[in-house]
Amino acid sequence: MGKRKVLVTGAAGFIGAFLVKALLEKTDDEIVGLDNVNNYYDPSIKESRLTMLRDINVEGRFTFVRGDLCDAVLIERLFAKNRFDVVVNLAAQAGVRYSIENPRAYVESNLVGFFNILEACRHHPVKHLVYASSSSVYGGNEKVPFSEGDRVDSPVSLYAATKKSNELMAAAYSKLYSIPATGLRFFTVYGPMGRPDMAYFGFTEKLRCGETIEIFNMGDCKRDFTFVDDIVEGVRHVMGGAPEVRMGDDGLPMAAHRVYNIGNSQPENLLDFVDALQRVLVEEGVLPADYDFEAHKQLVPMQPGDVPVTYADTSALERDFGYKPATKLEDGLRAFAKWYRDYCGGL
User: Fold this and answer.
1) Which of 41, 98, 131, 159 is catalytic?
2) Can you tell me the distance from the alpha carbon of 325 to that of 230, in angstroms, rounded to the nearest whole number?
3) Rounded CA gap, 272 and 330, in Å?
4) Could you list the residue range(s) of the whole structural domain that residue 92 is in?
């Protein structure tokens, strides 16, 4: 692919930091990372990710900019100065339940922030814009597995609505300004250095403190858990394969825009997931062998914004890029448990 100038927004975030790490280790790319390092969750984890990146940035190919996606002047300045080849927009306000409590944060980051990226790509053309969408766009679809051609016009949370809006905005800008763009619908990402608001991390924190964990929908949920390294490899594959700008029958450019699922294609029952998590937490020394898990579990009803199942059809990703996530759930949870033990302390 040669040496590229790459912008990664959300570079201190979970997926963003591991993407920058992979690009530093496996490519010759020069990378600019942007993140506002907000306090939606513990900023010390974000700082730890940045420390990880500084430690491997021996050739100085990574530059970090602490700033906000909503700062249009900053975004314009970054694009004008760097002339990016590829932009990977991972910055967003995440979390389904938080979108019910703080909707404005999602409008500002996920809509206004993404608009700023699109405008910058319009005025400073890039070879490829890759951006994070989400499996949440499928809403309460009952047809499984979820395929990219399924209808996604019934979101059950504002977060999902903003992600679908991103896809529509990107498609419009691609059509109007010939911007090659690819949206990636991520499915329940997990792994070391992850987000504390995700179930596996939150469960671990509560169990370690002797608190009770709540298992939603009375345990009758399935999630397509996808290990962070698999997500990152999917992103790397897609970065190198921009959609081709083609002319339509009307003589005008067609939208060079595609959307792909990235998931493990093997949904796990939430109760089985909890059992696997408990097992590795004991085996890796995070919790004692005699921990009474049954006394610390409670089955509760479905929460607003949640869906009973997520399940990715990744045949399009495999067809176009020859890539399919494959990390087993227990292996990924074990990697998380080892990191958690070292980061937060074991027994």
Assistant:
1) 159
2) 5
3) 11
4) 5-189+226-265+310-327
- List the CATH number of the domain containing 79: 3.40.50.720
Give the pair of three-digit tokens for residue 128: 């490829």
What's the CA gap between 27 and 105, in Å, rounded?
34
Question: What is the Cα 260 distance to its own chain's centre?
Answer: 13
Residue 221 included in any domain: no
Region of residue 245 (left: phi > 0; alpha: psi -120 to 50; beta: else): beta
Active site residue 159: yes
DSSP 14: H
* Cβ-count burial 33-63 (b if 16+ within 10 Å, e if not): bbbbbeebbeeebbebbbeebeeebeeebbe
Residue 347 CB neighbour total at 10 angstroms: 10
Rounded average pLDDT over 174-180: 96
286-334 confidence digits (pLDDT tens): 999 999 999 999 988 877 767 778 899 999 999 999 999 999 999 999 9
| Residue 63 host element (H or E) | strand 62-66
- Residue 71 in any domain: the answer is yes
Q: How far is CA 241 from the centre of its chain?
A: 19
Q: At 298, is the secondary structure helix, strand, or coil?
A: strand
pTM confidence score: 0.95
**DSSP 8-class letter at 212:** P
Does a structural domain hold residue 273? no
Q: Is residue 198 part of a domain?
A: no
Domain count, the chain: 1
Q: Which two tokens stand for residue 252?
A: 């005008």
Nearest alpha carbon to residue 242 among 261, 229, 228, 255? 255
